[in-house]
Amino acid sequence: MNWLTSFVRPKIKALVGKREMPDNLWNKCTSCGQMIFHRELEENLHVCSHCGHHMKLSVAQRLELLFDDGKFQEIELPEVTADPLKFKDRKRYGDRLKEAQNRTGRKDAIVVSHGKINSIPTVIAVLDFSYMGGSMGMAVGEGLLAASRLAVAQESPLIVIPSSGGARMQEGILSLMQMPRSIIAADEVKEAGLPYIVVLADPTTGGVSASFAMLGDIAIAEPGAVICFAGARVIEETIRETLPEGFQRAEYLLEHGMIDMVVHRRDLRDTLARILSLLCHRDPPAAIVPIAANGKNAQNGTNKKSAAKNPSAKSAPARRVTDRQDAN
């Protein structure tokens, strides 16, 4: 060992210092196990480029993906009692809430925003799985009611994107009460004649799947999403039988008529835009002009007189309606 290795090199290393590498440059696919560079993953909307597995997407990324130009406005949600039961397991429920709030920067697991999709005013409610597994407690119930009331007030469609493990056990019966309350929220939108669309993300389970998540006028799911009430392992242990391959996955539910479509994340915005354009079509209805059985206009003389009196009047597009009385 000469003086270069024993003296000079340590001095250089001490001056330069060890360069710390970020720990999030590479992400491992939870399905195929392949390592994916973080920039590639973001460009692919957190979809594995090797196997097509849809990884979890943050709330902000979902909203930016769906709204026009990524512009939206988040609304303030009603406050609820933080720890009504003073629940404690291995840790106090209040401490768990604080940890989740510090980690996510959110008050609870639901975010409600409004903006435009294909220039159509739309309200979107998203459950954040990173906040205590997206579990549904009183705050989520209040958030869903706030979203439905905003949609009704704006006469806008409501899109709900659940990603949840179900009801929040730390709130006990108060959490289970949010199931009927969330159903009321969905019914308010439907009774107003507005579209209620659900996009089922992975996972959608438990009390969430047994309430508002399965009530959409149109039910869309991301590929491979787990959608169920009880887990496959619990069912197998209960009935002591092996479940079919792909059981409780989005594709299985589509084959058995439980959902309407499975849409890749890159196509989700365009699909929602087309659906909203159809359901929210606001053009005036066409005028109905009775047509006799012989194919002649039953109101031909009347129309000519009206046109003569008002030559500047424009005729409305007509639909053919057979006059059964004339036919008889």
Strand fraction = 15-25%
Give the CA-based shape: globular
**How many E strands?**
11
CATH topology annotation of the largest domain: 2-enoyl-CoA Hydratase, Chain A, domain 1
What is the total number of structural domains? 3
Based on secondary structure, the structural category is: alpha/beta
Helix content: 25-40%
Provide the CATH superfamily of the largest domain: 2-enoyl-CoA Hydratase, Chain A, domain 1
Radius of gyration over alpha carbons?
28 Å
What is the averaged pLDDT score? Answer: 86
Description:
The chain has 328 residues and is an alpha/beta fold. The protein folds into 3 domains: 24-55, no CATH class; 57-279, 2-enoyl-CoA Hydratase, Chain A, domain 1, CATH 3.90.226.10; 287-327, no CATH class. Helices cover 37% and strands 15% of the residues. The chain contains 13 helices and 11 strands. It has helices at residues 3-16, 38-43, 59-66, 93-104, 138-154, 172-176, 178-191, 206-209, 232-239, 250-255, 268-279, 300-309, 324-327, and strands at residues 26-28, 35-37, 72-74, 110-117, 120-127, 158-161, 196-200, 218-221, 261-262, 287-291, 318-322. Strands 3-4-5-6-7-8-9 form a 7-stranded mixed sheet, sandwiched between helices. A two-stranded antiparallel sheet has the order 1-2. Helix 5 (138-154) packs parallel to helix 7. The longest helix is centred in the middle third of the chain and has 17 residues, at 138-154. The chain is globular, with a radius of gyration of 28 Å. Mean pLDDT is 86; it is low at 298-328.
